[in-house]
Specification:
The protein is α/β, with parallel strands linked by helices. The chain has 12 helices and 13 strands. Among the domains are: about 160 residues, 2-Layer Sandwich (Nucleotidyltransferase, domain 5), CATH 3.30.420; about 200 residues, Phosphoglycerate mutase-like (Rossmann fold), CATH 3.40.50. α4 crosses α5 and α11 crosses α12. The termini are far apart.
């Protein structure tokens, strides 16, 4: 009996994508395994990842696609198509992998199939619609507190509809006809900050080009403008508040990178999902649009707002000499830099500051510090806590919850943490100021009983409330020490701090470098959200203050 002919090895096309709404921010990936002849989707995969960077999400998408292909046939050959220049060049061995978060992911991806069985191709984002939609479905599901389900996915239908609607030459139909005709070139330019490997080899990973305010700017290295910044981490210029979702546009050619003026910190509020790509200082915002060959847009500090206008006044760049891809890179660098700091400081420690919900004393405007009756939340306060918990769960950005030891903050934090699936850590330094003999009294009652002490307290931060309470100067010293301790403990992460009026105002005052009397000029509502980001160089950026849209 003749030997049976060996089964020919199957071939698959894997398309993968990852995104992060904040970079780092709520992230997810999508991957699809395709039949290279028919274009049929054989397997889809998607997952919400929590808070990670865009590049990590891209690698996780690659891993999922390769593993799905290996489950179909471990002996197959695979052609990977991605719109991340960084991943394609690194996995092809042309760029070094330097970033510690990506080294193990790249190594893991390289082990799924034996060497030589996987090839890589860069494709424009317009040709990666299916995986892109899967990634966005996963992020949307995560924002709802749900897991992505293949039975609920419409990514394949949506991608097909988009292909049919796309202009000639811009469809993704050719992606499903086998091996690519244009494998990503080995080059020295790195849209994602990659670096060529010596002699075409090497394995160790490029840094992400920009830290925040955009997802990717891969097309910059091609200079053709066909790969716009995804903008899932940067929303409309100049907006603030947690009610504004930082989902951005995912369509081709939509670049939402605001140019920052002098001293502006425009990196997006990762803690609350509130976009902060708006500008302050001397330069007006310039929202850049990019498409194939689109002119570069407004430059920082030009004093004009421009959309689609040729770049003018960009320092050191001449007049309209850059491609749209280069403009995206420049704008991303500007957005990523707080003030005049370098763009490579890494992700900040972001404190989302939540004032506790109402207690019975809150609507009566009574002094309620750390030396009084320690009231619990009222029914209204518990409802407020539930509302803010739902709002934060939708955004999916909180990585840890830390609370003051007082009952009202512990109760508020417990409600939020339960919704987020997190534990509550207690930090003594977040407690409210001790108001001494004024505890439980209204301002008018204190004025009647202790007028001299009240006048002194209003005039000097060193004055203590009657009966040996805590001065605002002492509170400031305590909060500064607490801030430093928490910044070190939560470097690069987004943490919810559940505290009180005076500590939260003090965090903001210290970040702004404002004098102690500014505490009397801030309004802070019950269950409101504020946010401050702290960078590695010691800088701070106030991103949000007294946001209450979730209560309406």
């Amino acid at each position: 009996m003749a030997d049976q002919a060996p089964r020919p090895a199957r071939e698959f096309v894997v398309e993968a994508d990852g995104g992060s709404r904040g970079n780092p921010g709520p992230a997810g990936y999508g991957a699809v395994v395709l039949d290279p002849v028919t274009g049929e989707a054989l397997v889809e995969a998607a997952e919400y990842l929590g808070v990670v960077t865009n590049n990590v999400a891209e690698y996780r998408g690659l891993l999922a696609g390769l593993r799905a292909a290996a489950e179909l046939d471990p002996d197959a050959t695979v052609h990977v198509r991605m719109d991340s220049k960084l991943v394609v060049e690194q996995m092809s061995g042309r760029w070094k992998i330097k970033h510690p978060d990506m080294k193990p992911l790249a190594a893991e991806a390289a082990r799924v199939f034996p060497p030589g069985r996987v090839t890589y191709e860069w494709i424009p984002r317009a040709s990666n619609k299916h995986a892109d939609r899967l990634a966005n479905e996963a992020m949307d599901a995560g924002a709802r507190g749900e897991a992505w389900s293949p039975s609920d996915s419409t990514a394949e239908l949506d991608a097909a509809a988009a292909d049919r609607a796309a202009p000639a030459g811009r469809t993704a139909g050719s992606r499903r006809t086998g091996a690519a005709s244009a494998v990503a070139p080995a080059g020295t330019e790195g849209g994602d900050g990659g670096e060529p490997a010596p002699d075409g080899g090497g394995a160790a990973a490029g840094e992400p080009l920009a830290r925040a305010g955009r997802d990717r700017v891969d097309a910059a290295s091609l200079g053709a403008g066909t790969r716009a910044a995804t903008s899932t981490g940067a929303s409309a210029t100049g907006t603030s508040g947690t009610g504004a979702s930082a989902t951005g546009a995912s369509g081709t050619g939509a670049s939402a990178t605001g140019a920052s003026g002098a001293g502006a910190s425009a990196t997006g509020a990762s803690g609350t999902g509130a976009p902060a790509t708006g500008t302050s200082g001397t330069g007006a915002s310039a929202t850049g649009t990019s498409g194939a060959g689109a002119p570069a847009t407004g430059a920082p500090g030009t004093g004009a707002s421009a959309t689609g206008a040729p770049a003018t006044g960009a320092p050191g760049l001449g007049v309209a000499a850059e491609t749209s891809g280069e403009a995206d890179v420049r704008a991303a660098k500007v957005v990523a830099s707080p003030g005049w700091g370098p763009p490579d400081m890494g992700a900040p420690a972001t404190f989302v500051l939540l004032r506790h919900g109402e207690t019975p004393l809150t609507p009566q405007k009574r002094f309620s510090g750390s030396g009084g009756s320690d009231p619990s939340l009222s029914p209204v306060g518990r409802e407020q806590a539930e509302r803010v918990a739902a709002s934060l769960a939708r955004r999916g950005t909180i990585e840890a919850v830390v609370a003051s030891p007082l009952a009202r903050t512990r109760e508020t934090a417990g409600i939020v943490a339960a919704r987020l699936g997190l534990e509550v850590a207690i930090e003594e330094g977040l407690r409210e100021t001790d108001f001494g003999a004024w505890e439980g009294l209204t301002f008018g009652e204190v004025r009647e009983r202790h007028p001299a002490d009240l006048d002194a307290w209003l005039a000097s931060p060193d004055a203590e409330p009657t009966g040996g309470g805590e001065s605002f100067a002492a509170t400031g010293t305590r909060i500064a020490a607490t801030r430093d301790r928490l910044v070190a403990a939560y470097a690069g992460r987004t943490v919810l701090l559940v505290s009180h009026v005076t500590p939260i105002k003090t965090f903001v005052r210290l970040a702004l470098g404002a004098p102690p009397e500014s505490l009397f000029r801030m309004e802070l509502s019950a269950a409101s959200l504020s946010a401050v980001a702290y960078y590695a160089d010691g800088g701070a950026s106030v991103r949000l203050f007294n946001e209450t849209s979730h209560l309406r």
